[in-house]
Amino acid sequence: FIKKIPKDAEASNVLVGEVEFLEKPFVAFVRLLQATMLGGVTEVPVPTRFLFILLGPAGKAKSYNEIGRAIATLMVDDLFSDVAYKARDREDLIAGIDEFLDEVIVLPPGEWDPNIRIEPPKKVPSAEKRKSVFSLNEVGQMNGTAGGAGAGGGGGGSDDGEMPEVHEIGEELAWTGRFCGGLYLDIKRKLPWFPSDFYEAFHIQSISAILFIYLGCITNAITFGGLLGDATDNYQGVMESFLGTAMAGSMFCLFAGQPLIILSSTGPILIFEKLLFDFSKGNGIDYMEFRLWIGLHSALQCLILVATDASFIIKYITRFTEEGFSTLISFIFIYDAIKKMIGAFKYYPINSDFKPDYVTMYKCECIAPDPAPVAPNTTNVSLYNAINLTALDWTQLSKKECLKYGGSLVGKSCKFVPDLALMSFILFFGTYSMTLTLKKFKFSRYFPTKLRKLISDFSIFMSILMFVGLDVLFGLNTPKLQVPTDFKPTRVDRGWFVFPFGKNPWWVYLASALPALLVTILIFMDQQITAVIVNRKEHKLRKAAGYHLDLFWVGILMAVCSFMGLPWYVAATVISIAHIDSLKMETETSAPGEQPQFLGVREQRVTGIIVFVLTGISVFLAPILKYIPMPVLYGVFLYMGVASLNGIQFWDRCKLFLMPAKHQPDYVFLRHVPLRRIHLFTLVQIVCLAVLWILKSTVAAIIFPVMILALILVRRLLDFVFSQHDLAWIDNIIPEKEKKKEDDKKKKKK
């Protein structure tokens, strides 16, 4: 129990009892000058500062106990505790009790059902406002009055608890007006934290994060590499995807401003590569050289954006845009995982034609081929082979041997395969559901706290081991993870370096700046929106963000990848959120019945670096990785997509459409904004999300980054539909500096 008590804590002992020699109750409230150890009075060796003693005549023990409970409740209230420390006499304590009772909600006995939700109060008591009641007491004027009359004298709109905290813009996004000013400040802010970015990773939680993110990255690299190979005629394939992911990811995690961000290639980049290859092929332009110049122009444009502090426009991206983008990426993960699982049912159809009653008719025989006439010039070898074939017992051959020697399979069961689709679904859904269950195991009542947390941290790894073992046990030929085994380019006619001159006309080197602009917009928006989501204040990150430094390294790595003929990389939203979730820290000890408190995220560079190094050496781990079934990894993808939806207010508001008012959770925005206005705001977001989804699913995905910019414009237009009060609760109001400018313009017009 001593571990659950904060440092420098002092005890308040509440003692009540019955005695025979008293005719009326005796009450004493004692504050000791110095906290003193009172031996066995307290459960644990904590010094006592306060004593409350209530003795009374026999027959009223229940009443005495309730009074003691009330005093104990008072003493754990922060404000009354301050009053107790500073009180000079009995009247001061009574004034503190009166103030406490003013904010207490009384539930009549016998009329309250614990199963019924209590409607929240219209106005939440503000702790700061309560403390202001006693502001004069600190200068020696505590005189037994609660100061209630004085507290209301300066009432203002901002102090009534009706507005949330202002959406503060960090100094990282301030426009310096100097060449590379933001980049310089990012480096200056991040440099002192650099040593701790390594030694803070020495924790067992880091191991579970590495295993989890590694499997997500390797699956993504294989999937994207395969699609990229199909789109570019194998000029870039799985091997290039592996090498690019390992090199770009590890370099970014080592030097970037926010090492918790995980780099990956995205769908819009894939579509751009396909269009670029088709254009090059149709116009007789060398694809790799053309792509190199586009990458160099885009890298230069990214560096120009860094030098001019262009990242400051990110401060106009509010929750509306953040959550629209984040939800879209989460839905893509969920959709792709389910789509690939459904594809297994088409590739391995369920044996619906099998009828147990006709099992006697199911058979498969190997029939020898018809003997071909021997030509006059046939060699002895062919005669020897022919003799061998005639000597075979065709009825004893396996399916593979029968087909190898030219035989044919005859019978109704020849095409029978086990229900691989059903087995794949068991592996897929089992991995997802077991991971979800084990992740919540830390809130269970079973086993000690540390063991529960360990199981929760390693939930994904344990689920994967469980279902890989199940697959090995059954021995079915489910689709497995295919990893390249040779370290060489996918195409034999290309190397690891792309020469910039000689294959295309000179004007291509200049004209490539135009398509590079689209790539730059895509890279900028993907990278910076993901960075905003990762750096949310809800994550309680201690170390400063580095938007300019992140974009600088993305630009540098883009140029390097272009020279090596590797895919381009940008921040992966869902995998980055999963990385943060796997590194969240909570209090290891808490009072009985109290939920663990979220402390922040284990901010370090080691997990990301090791993940990408492992991705690079996966070529040598192929003999082990080949046992992992793809449906298991699809289940991990589904979990990552679903888990990244947690904490997104937009998703919480979507679920409100299906909930009656009395069953809705007690979200703070429901207390301040009418439900119909919340539904209207949510509908606007749903329409925007649908438009983005349609664009993503067509060739028009090339303008996807431009549509993300359009979301900012849509949000600005919502200022004319919703009040600033409503937007402050369900979104964020635009930065104050911009608002002041607009107010000044309105005044001038008037």
List the helices and strands and how they pair.
Layout: E1 11-18, E2 26-36, E3 48-56, H1 61-75, H2 78-86, H3 90-102, H4 127-132, H5 148-151, H6 181-190, H7 196-199, H8 204-231, H9 238-255, E4 263-264, H10 267-282, H11 287-307, H12 319-347, E5 365-367, H13 380-391, H14 399-404, E6 408-410, H15 420-439, H16 449-457, H17 459-474, H18 506-511, H19 513-534, H20 547-564, E7 570-571, H21 573-581, E8 584-586, E9 598-601, H22 606-616, H23 622-625, H24 630-643, H25 649-655, H26 668-672, H27 675-696, H28 704-717, H29 724-730, H30 736-749
Parallel strand pairs: 1-3
Antiparallel strand pairs: 2-3, 4-7, 5-6, 8-9
Membrane topology: Multi-pass membrane protein
Domain Band 3 cytoplasmic: 1-114
InterPro entries: Band3_cytoplasmic_dom, HCO3_transpt-like_TM_dom, HCO3_transpt_euk, Na/HCO3_transpt, PTrfase/Anion_transptr
